[in-house]
Specification:
- The protein is an alpha/beta fold.
- It folds into three domains: 89 residues, no CATH class; 171 residues; 202 residues, 3-Layer(aba) Sandwich (Rossmann fold).
- Helices cover 42% and strands 17% of the residues.
- The strands form four sheets. A seven-stranded mixed beta sheet has the order 12-11-10-13-14-16-15.
- A hairpin with a 2-residue loop joins strand 7 and strand 8.
- The protein starts with 5 loop residues before the first strand and ends in a 5-residue tail after the last strand.
Length: 481
């Protein structure tokens, strides 16, 4: 990662990345509560089940060694009285604006499970947002341990309820009703959607759907009185412990039933969701493509693979089944949701994300330091990059120069690139040009090879039968031995 990403929104602590290690400091009275949670049986259980990020305290010698690094002062130097901890490093951080709805639903389910399980041991969540969840491959993991606090047994209120609804439930509802992609929600709204927004978007008949009525219409209609009584809403309340526990557990049950109704049960149809069934390859051509990619992966044995333009994940799955840790990106949320479902069903180390390489996810947050850009996370993070049936889209649709595409590919991979060259005579290429074939008349396999030779050496190549396409296995000239 190019430079640390730093968390500062909780006044009790901060979290940053230093020397590829995820470090957290905790200050003041919060240290005792934080350590108590780490030592609790529920924390150990959730960590063993891989639902909670592994965490350990740093020793004084470790802190002394780390504090000698130049970056320490900028991020941790003023916290001399704090206690420091190290979290397990999740291999490739991702954010809600890069997830398909299936992954947001799974993150919501995890958050509820963690809240329910810790409630039984006397702990509660301060907040409930997708920002507290990362994905280890296809599996979600709760990462914000400072979200946990001791919960009075007489308290009948789950204070993160409104936040959970805004950041999980309403985005899932918008997706169910209109196919709203999560990027449309979270790139501009860190705190999700308000009921008033959904209400404005709804047809009058849609407002009668019970889920919309309870989650959107009633909060909208009661918002005036809620604002007048806002101060009283968050005042401490007490009741008998058994009754308080029953009220909160009943709320969790209602939220789980709501999530079940909003579960993305099947991928929406899209332009690309049926590509694997309707692609323009003949049987021999696709078999040759599969064989070439499989042989390349077997020869390279990459530990980390980035699949650009993964579609529904055919080759991503192939790489993951071969033992690689895979990040698969595609611009189509329906395709990415299908990849996640395949990865989860097969217990594969495969993280699918909704990312357009031509318009990659930007850095976000205060001074762009809260969420790193996709390219900052992806540069040098893979031993092998797959760019299959994507180059012509970048050249034609996005009008990115060939040399620029290859230059970025060389930054993304530390070693190999498996890339598909599509000649202008190809039917798909001609569909993309829409009568402007003359703009690409000079693009030939020889021109492609000459451009690639600046950064890569050709290790293998094959012409796909009955097509105007060639596959190449390229390796960087300056790769580490």
């Amino acid at each position: 990662m190019a430079g640390p990403v730093f968390s500062f929104r909780d006044p009790a602590d901060g979290c940053g990345v230093l020397d590829e290690r995820v470090l957290r400091f905790v200050t003041g009275a919060n240290v005792e509560e934080f350590q108590a949670f780490l030592q609790s049986s529920v924390s150990r259980e959730l960590e063993q089940r891989k639902l909670l990020v592994a965490t350990r305290p740093l020793t004084e010698p470790e802190v002394a060694e780390l504090s000698s690094q130049p970056e320490w002062e900028a991020f941790f130097g003023r916290q001399s009285a704090a206690r420091f901890f190290e979290h397990e490093r999740i291999p490739f951080p991702s954010y809600p604006h890069e997830w398909p709805a299936e992954m947001l639903w799974e993150a919501a389910r995890l958050t509820l499970e963690v809240a329910q399980r810790t409630l039984a041991e006397g702990w509660g969540l301060k907040d409930a947002t997708p920002q507290n969840v990362l994905f280890r491959g296809s599996l979600p993991v709760f990462i914000d341990l400072l979200s946990f606090e001791r919960r009075p047994p007489t308290d009948p209120v789950w204070r993160p309820y409104a936040q959970f609804v805004r950041t999980f439930v309403l985005p899932l509802l918008a997706h169910r009703l209109w196919g709203t992609p999560l990027s449309q929600v979270f790139l501009s709204r860190r705190d999700g959607l308000e009921p008033e927004e959904i209400y404005r978007w709804c047809h009058p008949l849609t407002r009668l759907w019970p889920t919309v009525l309870s989650l959107v219409c009633l909060p909208k209609w009661l918002s005036g009185s809620a604002r007048r009584e806002a101060a009283a809403l968050y005042q401490p309340r007490e009741t008998e412990p058994e009754k308080a526990r029953f009220i909160v557990e009943s709320l969790f049950g209602r939220l789980q039933r709501t999530l079940n109704r909003l579960k993305p049960c099947r991928a929406r149809e899209s332009v690309w969701s049926d590509y694997m069934q309707t692609h323009s390859y003949s049987g021999p051509a696709f078999a040759a493509k599969e064989r070439f990619v499989r042989d390349a992966l077997a020869e390279l044995k990459p530990a980390r693979v980035l699949d650009v333009g993964a579609n529904t994940g055919h080759f991503s799955v192939m790489a993951a089944e071969g033992g690689a840790r895979v990040v698969a990106i595609d611009i189509d949320p329906a395709c990415v949701g299908a990849i996640w479902q395949r990865a989860r069903a097969g217990s594969l180390d495969l993280l699918p994300l909704v990312v357009d390489l031509a318009r990659p996810t930007p850095a976000l947050g205060w001074q762009y330091r809260e969420s790193a850009s996709f390219l900052d996370r992806a540069r040098g993070a893979s031993d092998c990059v797959l760019m299959l049936a994507v180059l012509h889209h970048l050249l034609v649709t996005e009008r990115v120069p060939l040399d620029d595409v290859l230059a970025l590919a060389a930054e993304l991979t530390t070693d190999a690139l498996v890339i598909e060259f599509v000649a202008p005579a190809d039917d798909m290429f001609r569909q993309l040009t829409r009568g402007r074939e003359h703009l690409h008349a000079s693009l030939t396999a020889e021109v492609f090879e000459a451009a690639g030779a600046k950064r890569f050496a050709v290790v293998g190549a094959v012409a796909l039968p009955e097509t105007h396409r060639r596959l190449y296995l390229l390796r960087k000239r300056n790769r580490s031995a």
